[in-house]
From TrEMBL:
It holds the Pfam family Trans_reg_C. The keyword Electron transport does not apply. Signal peptide: none annotated. This is Stage 0 sporulation protein A homolog. Keywords: DNA-binding, Phosphoprotein, Transcription, Transcription regulation. It comes from Desulfosporosinus nitroreducens. PANTHER family: REGULATOR OF RPOS, RESPONSE REGULATOR SAER. The keyword Transcription applies. It comes from the Bacteria. InterPro entries: CheY-like_superfamily, OmpR/PhoB-type_DNA-bd, Sig_transdc_resp-reg_C-effctor, Sig_transdc_resp-reg_receiver, WalR-like, WH-like_DNA-bd_sf. The modification 4-aspartylphosphate is found at D51. May play the central regulatory role in sporulation. It may be an element of the effector pathway responsible for the activation of sporulation genes in response to nutritional stress. Spo0A may act in concert with spo0H (a sigma factor) to control the expression of some genes that are critical to the sporulation process. Residues 2-115 form the Response regulatory domain.
Amino acid sequence: MNILVCDDDKEILDAIKIYLENEGYKVFRASNGLAALEVVEEHEIHLVIMDIMMPQMDGLRATMKIREDKNIPVIMLSAKSEDTDKIMGLNMGADDYITKPFNPLELIARVRSQLRRYMTLGSMETKSNVYKTGGLVIDDECKVVSVDGDEVKLTPVQYKILKLLTANAGRVFSIDEIYEKVWKEVAFCPENTVAVHIRKIREGIEINPKEPKYLKVVWGIGYKVEKI
């Protein structure tokens, strides 16, 4: 997931970047609203953390500009704690509000909550290259897999297998079919090869790989991703 952090305080920018990268997110930085708008236009951003008081263009105006054509979550960040400031930020299009100084664990929790809502409510599935079943989402444009808003790291081969099965959720693929479609060659004793990758995928996307919710075996036939 790509997150933009916009703040004119370099120490805060650096600190938030460290917190988010430790959670596996890719972080883009900007020091004012104008720079933030450029980042949003040039990159696929999934969430914005936006300070209010900044030079050149403040966070409120930048959020209004983002809202003109994008529906990504925006968390306002400010030293002000008055209710009127929170209300103004939310009225300008922000999804959440957190005041400085903030607890890093609270910030991460709010980021996860907003990304989870963004993914599961279908804001991203309007794109033709997003495949979704339940809380499992594959954004093929960004090559990102997430479960309930949390990004899952897969190898390229594992990604291709999961994309094949998720794009055809509910359909059972034989081991030979999976091998031929992913490896682009005729299958020859592919059982162990495919099984190893299936096990690794389950370890990444399932809460309990032994009782999978998504990636299931159909004994004697093959594998499928459950249509939820």
